[in-house]
Amino acid sequence: MERVPILKLGDILIVSIQIDLDDQSVLALQEDLADMVVSSGARGVIIDITAVEIVDSFIGRMLSTIAAMTRMLDAETVVVGMRPAVAITLVELGLSLGGVRTALNLEKGVAMLEHVRGAAG
Amino acid sequence: MSVPAEAARRRIVDLFLSSEERLLRRWTQLSGASPDELRDLYQALRTAISGEEGDLADVRGLLAELSRARVRQGYTPSDTARLVFSLKEALYEVVEDDGGPEALRGFVWFSRLIDDLGLYTFETYSAAREKIMLDQAEQLLELSTPVVKLWEGIVAVPLVGTLDSARTQVVMEKLLQTLVETGSEHAVIDITGVPAVDTQVAQHLLKTVVAARLMGAECVISGIRPQIAHTIVTLGIEFGDIVTKASLADALSYALKRSGVEITGAARTRVAVRAERG
User: Fold this and answer.
1) Fold matches, B5-138 and B148-277
2) Which residues of A, range 49-108, sit inside 8 Å of B by Cβ?
3) Which of A99, B27, B241, B265 sits most deeply, having the most CB atoms within 10 A of its CB?
4) Is ipTM strictly over 0.85?
């Protein structure tokens, strides 16, 4: 099973998904990420899905789950780089990812996290 | 009294071949077409039915050409089919003179052949029409979905005409693609040119907005005319937390404000100066 690497940049964790996700790697990613947020004390998580071309409802739910999970641990999640085809698929599947922040690319995602944190004080 | 089908067929082909001049003259008279095009058709038909295989490809090719040419000349497809059918009448006169049972039986076979050919001209006509319509629909689809850049980070889609699923799909894809390519965080969907909004159109718009949101961009819907606002409320369509504005100008000013651009009075003064010069 391939594991998705989690990178730490300041107090932000960056997850760039470059592989075809199967259910096992998704579950592993959720666990790893929760551990990392706690151990590093990160305040923000960015999930980069630029390379993801195909999604199903399971992956859609994964994004929501991660966002909810990290919020419990006091970190904001931003999903960045979603492709148009992926967005359309998710909408057709009826997943609007409520509660998940999104940004067009990594740069804007980082800016968004800083903005959110600035507003929170 | 039964006549073998083979013999009947041979007899009618013989009659058809032997009375070429008479048939052509009568056919021209009945159909009112030029003798030259009928002669070509007659010859192709003769080759086709006198051969063993009965291959009608050449005849069909000629008929398709004839059908197209006559449409250009302003004939209706019925006229073209009638032209083909009138050959039956011309041949029937020959059969009547012959009077034999084989010829009559064979005439039924020949008649079916001509019916098929007549219907074929009709098919050619409708296929040509169909193709024109498809081409135009495609062109319309390409024409009607421009995505324009209004400002750095703000794009707009002026929608004109009725929205259906196919068009919305194209608009949606094009808009989302542009958002990625230009890195724009704001999009304005202007529906001033959309004549009517029903539940389906609203559904399509909502899907587009949600998809854009998933990618990290905000959509504003503008150009909602009073009667459309009325329809939407009457239909009970919920736009939820989607921002809607009456005019494109309002939407632009909202998007500018959201992206942190400040509009001050100075801009207005500058416009005034330019106007004086002009």
Assistant:
1) no
2) 78-80, 82-88, 90-92, 96-97, 101-105, 108
3) B27
4) no
